[in-house]
Design brief:
mainly alpha
């Protein structure tokens, strides 16, 4: 169990680092498309540009926190928060909107909105597992 408590947080952090670096690079490379799609998303009209820059900046900052061991717990909390907001938005879109534009990039373009919701919930659970494991390891 001790080994799991040592290995799990860096492994989960690595998963989020890979995911966020991939999405930041993908969104940056196709920024005009990402910006356009985000601006057309229900409830986000008029907020596309600040959200686009904000999401990229927050994911980049989270990667830095996750890579720096003393700040890893903060990074996991922010990753959990990001995934919670994404899951909440996707869930709201599925419940209340008929217009479902895709702001997915790269590998995630083929996913349905329901698939996206399941992925986001899974990543929320993954981040929470990392948080709980780190806290359990620190309490002893």
């Amino acid at each position: 169990m001790k080994t799991l408590k040592k290995i799990l947080p860096p492994l989960i952090s690595f998963i989020f680092v890979v995911l966020f670096v991939y999405t930041v690079i993908s969104k940056g490379a196709g920024f005009s498309t990402y910006l356009n799609q985000l601006g057309q998303s229900p409830g986000l009209e008029g907020y596309g540009e600040p959200l686009a820059y904000g999401v990229i900046a927050l994911q980049t900052a989270t990667v830095i926190l996750l890579c720096y061991r003393p700040l890893r717990l903060w990074g996991l909390w922010i990753a959990f928060g990001i995934m919670t907001v994404f899951a909440g938005y996707v869930g709201g879109i599925l419940l209340y909107s008929n217009n479902l534009p895709c702001t997915c990039i790269g590998l995630f373009e083929k996913m349905t909105w329901k698939d996206n919701l399941i992925l986001n919930i899974g990543l929320m659970i993954t981040a929470l597992t990392g948080i709980m494991t780190m806290k359990a390891g620190r309490s002893k």
